[in-house]
Fold this protein.
Amino acid sequence: MKHCLLLAAAAAVFPVAALAAPADNDQTALSQSVDKREASLARLARSIWDYSEVGYQETKSSALLADELQKAGFTVQRGVAGMPTAFTASFKRGEGPVIAILAEYDALPGLAQDATPERSPLPGRIAGHACGHNLFGAASVTAAIAVKEWMAANNIAGEVRVLGSPAEEGGSGKVYLVRAGLFDDVAATLHWHPGDENGVSVGASQANISGKFRFRGVASHASAAPDKGRSALDGVEVMNVATNYLREHVPIGTRIHYVVTNGGQAPNVVPDFAESYYYVRSSDVDVVRSVWARVTKAAEGAAMATDTKVDVEITGGVYAMLGNEALAAVMHRSLVTVGGPRWTAEDRAWAERIQPTLPTQGALDSIAETGAVTAETGGGSTDVADVSWASPTVGLRVATWVPGTPAHSWQAVAASGAPIGERGAMVAAKTLALAAADLFRSPETLAAARAEFDRKRGDGFRYRALVGDRSPPLDYRKVSEASR
């Protein structure tokens, strides 16, 4: 059961959060601006869905969104923070607050699926938008363009800034944006994410560290001369056994999971190279650091036991989300104003066909509900969390999938490429635009958000990226054989 934070309670703590929303004419202008871009949003979302580019390889997706913003009058800087597919896009009028909007566009390996309500893999495609980041990027860009037009028409001072952030899925792209100081002057950061329901959260996410353990041994004939070989795969397997015993002795709520990404090529050859890919998660960043160090010791012990060598590459690392109630009240009010997605008869028929394939079947009419501000700690991780420790940040979830659809599933891929996904993305674009306008009109709310942010971070907080000072792992999605 989710724990709801009533808006009245939030307003009692932060009275400015209950200020009047943007004037009706502002809301109308922003909504109409998004509406006239409905076809453009659909084109962007479907193109990125078709590209299905994985982290740090989103060349076409990044260029498409950056080009769209540049054509709309934004000043665009590409390849920021050492990432070729990252960009910033800025529209500025005079001196005023900087409101940032995040855009994502990376796909997940596997799960390539047609935009149909039946399981229909797409031959030859290696990835799919199983988290809906094609919709994420398209809606964020659409919202930013609407805000830019509104600012110009109403002489609003300040800056709307889009940060195109690659490799959210395990590559921690936003960590490098934070580390590069691109949020240092930001008054508030807005983001959203596709899902199967609508709502706003101030709850924590899971901090994590992820990385690849590469074992190297000696190849030999597995039958004629096994004594001459030293199996790298044995190293991976002994590490896995040691780590599985470790699970009993970590704080409650800690998650450790892995896959073997290279286990050798033929059974009659002692593998001289093997690789495993690990995640450690907890809502406490210090627990993540501690448990990751112990997993690394398990790898080192496995190498010693098998007479192999091991090295580790940290490919990602993110904090737990720092919620902001003052901003959440603004975002939720904007969501209520816009309302949930509105399906056509064709959309509902599509949803009814896919519904029997879902592990749980939610009520289809729930897509119209706007939910509440919740404080539930989620089971997933996101690099948006690092942004939330660099500037006051708030997120929105919008129903772009059929209720009951889990993320990272073929059903999510299908919906993200179908019209129902675009309906939800339009709601997200309007909500983000209204929230940004609300904040530009209300310096008091921005001040309250900053005060809350400073209080929650605590005195003396200093950001230390979990990835350390390493460069972005631009090849983390390449096959392990390329790492040899």
User: Anything to note?
Assistant: Residues 207-318 form a domain with the Alpha-Beta Plaits fold (CATH 3.30.70.360). The chain has two domains: 7-204+320-457, 207-318. DSSP finds 14 helices and 14 strands in the chain.
